[in-house]
Amino acid sequence: GCRVAAPITLTFQPSAGVPESDLGIQVLQGGQLDLHGAPYKPTWTRLSATVPRGSNIIYLQDSVSSWQPGQLLFVTTSIYRDEYENQNEVAAVQSVSSDGRTVVVDSPFQYSHYGGSEYQSEVGLLSRSLLLRSWPGSGTTSRGAHVRIMGQGRLEGVLSYQMGQRNVLGAYPFHWHNAGDAGRGVSYAKDCAVFASYYRCFVVHGTQNLQLTDNVAFHATGSCFYLEDGVEEGNWLQHNLGAFVHVIGRPAGGVTQSGEVFVQGPDLAHPADAAAGVFYA
């Protein structure tokens, strides 16, 4: 699809006569959803050098020359478990060097972020030109809007902010629900982002051959890349990043979740994915 560079925001607001379960976007069988935001590649990379506390400069392994001033990024913790001491940090891009490998942010980092030879903190881009968000008061109940796709869904360069409904099955930021055979390359989510999700992030349920590539998820409750039934086959998860994901305990009708990635089937490809600050994934 044609990728839209101009900023567009869709805010989902509850109204009389609209049940909470219907708030958001629902694509019925036979329907099609196309959302194509501007390409900002790569969507995430890793540090090439340690960022000391008090610095506002980060050095990266890959060029991010498409990232723009004012966009939000996050740098993941480099300590063992971020639920105990959150050292993930969000900052705004101030400038990007000509080669794209040095980024100056708008404020100094409060913590050091490691970028040595053994491992390196990840750096992900949160901002997108297309923004789907819940109304500002949704945080009081953790019940936001959600996207449920039962037909075809092609998403690129879309940010979901404060979406999903806490511990409500089927109400997630991006959810392919009993869509059947998505057809490799026909339905996908590419270089999208989920930020401050109330419940999970990218959920695949009863759907085969879906592509999830180059996506980032940050500050979310429940598993972020989730294959629900274990019968889903042929799904391709590649180069996705999940970070700062919060344990929800035992959700309704599910099993205990503690990680960025929760899968129940063997027929799944997920090369080059990454999870930061996770006890297990």
TrEMBL record:
Belongs to the comF family. Keywords: Glycoprotein. The lineage of its organism: Eukaryota, Viridiplantae, Chlorophyta, core chlorophytes, Chlorophyceae. This is G8 domain-containing protein. It comes from the Eukaryota. Residues 1-49 form the G8 domain. It comes from Volvox africanus.
